[in-house]
Design goal:
Number of strands: 8
Strand order of the largest sheet: 1-2-3
Strand content: 5-15%
Largest sheet: 3 strands, antiparallel
């Protein structure tokens, strides 16, 4: 019989066995020929466990481990799959490898400044992607350091790079007409999605998630409430990627967009009775893969001979046409689903400048039309001091 609380037993083979519960809940066993000897072994092991735990208590975890823990923690359940994939790629490709290979593998003001410098000076990255890395890096740091005394000091070391938005790709009026003409000739009903985007500016994922029930033919309003995206399968079972419908990019992206009459007339015959829950592009209860639709778009461009561009160029074209017709930036920003008018102004700064030049040109014409005399003639009414 064991002595109470000792967990030491005499086995049938004559040896003594001691059982110790480890911090993870599992058991470690020690053996000896005598009770006294096994008790001594058990004490040595328990003292060793206590000492290890004490060391871990005062050890500062490595920066790479902290970022790994944050990524593998509860953040996956708090954000959209597409957002988590951005976090995953940023940390796995840049943040974690950097700190693992750095001599300064602790989160300090110096190590953060060095990482920021490394990203800023990385010539292989675009300015836009550098900003994305820094934004995600700061999100992770905020949660990791939330209870730290050096929270403010370290976060202030994260300097965002100055990145100019590259000129947006836009289809010319002629190219747009060529594409629209080809779409109207095609037997593939999915192609009409291109027209929808040209006259609403919605994103590709939002187009793929569009159901007939999202279009009210009476009020002439289209509701954007979902987006479709293909993301990495982080569960590790089945295929490497997953196609999922979820909420749009941000809460600002959930919006209502008025539709032009001609577009409603084109879409009306395509709508089947009793198919409110069917996706417009697929015609079924399953959405079409955005990658599949991109291939269709490339096919249309090839058939028209129009220069190859990303699908997102349609959204830029819509915004540019709206500004050309005199729509104010606030209205455009809401239609596009931007979180701020500032974003709209930054992205379409080139269009804004063109509008300003056109406006000043009108003033010039107005002046010349109403002034009959030489604008530089000095009249007798001008008196000199």
């Amino acid at each position: 019989m064991p002595r109470r609380g000792e967990n030491i037993y005499k086995r049938r083979d004559g040896r003594w066995e001691g059982r110790i519960q480890k911090p993870n809940g599992k058991y470690q066993y020690v053996y000896a020929k005598t009770y006294k000897e096994v008790k001594k072994k058990k004490k040595i092991f328990q003292d060793c466990v206590k000492e290890t735990a004490k060391k871990r208590l005062y050890e500062v975890p490595c920066a790479s481990e902290l970022f790994e823990s944050w990524l593998e923690g509860g953040v996956f359940d708090r954000v959209k799959p597409s957002t988590y994939e951005s976090y995953y790629r940023c940390l796995k490709n840049y943040v974690i490898p950097y700190f693992k290979g750095s001599k300064e593998n602790q989160i300090t003001k110096l190590s953060i400044e060095q990482f920021v410098k490394y990203i800023h000076e990385n010539g292989a990255l675009s300015g836009t992607y550098k900003m994305k890395i820094m934004a995600i890096f700061k999100v992770a740091l905020k949660e990791i350091l939330k209870d730290s005394d050096s929270y403010e000091q370290i976060l202030n070391a994260v300097k965002m790079p100055r990145a100019k938005h590259p000129p947006v790709e836009v289809f010319s009026d002629r190219e747009q007409r060529q594409i629209e003409t080809e779409v109207l000739k095609m037997d593939d009903g999915r192609a009409f999605g291109v027209l929808i985007c040209f006259y609403t500016g919605i994103r590709l994922g939002e187009l793929c998630a569009l159901k007939w029930g999202n279009i009210n033919f009476e009020t002439k309003i289209m509701s954007i409430i979902e987006t479709v995206s293909r993301t990495k399968n982080f569960h590790g079972n089945g295929s490497k990627t997953l196609l999922a419908a979820g909420t749009p990019k941000s809460h600002h992206s959930i919006r209502e967009i008025p539709l032009p009459d001609f577009l409603l007339e084109i879409l009306r015959p395509l709508k089947n009775a009793g198919s409110e829950n069917n996706y417009i592009l697929s015609g079924s209860d399953r959405p079409i893969d955005p990658r599949t639709y991109q291939k269709l778009f490339k096919k249309i461009l090839k058939r028209t001979g129009v220069k190859d561009r990303k699908f997102h160029a349609i959204r830029h074209t819509f915004a540019t046409r709206m500004l050309e017709t005199g729509v104010d930036v606030k209205t455009l920003s809401e239609i596009l689903g931007h979180s701020s008018v500032i974003i709209t102004l930054k992205v379409y700064a080139h269009s804004q400048m063109e509008q300003k030049i056109a406006a000043i040109g009108k003033l010039n014409s107005l002046y010349l039309m109403h002034i009959d005399v030489d604008p530089f003639a000095v009249t007798g009414s001008v008196k000199h001091a």
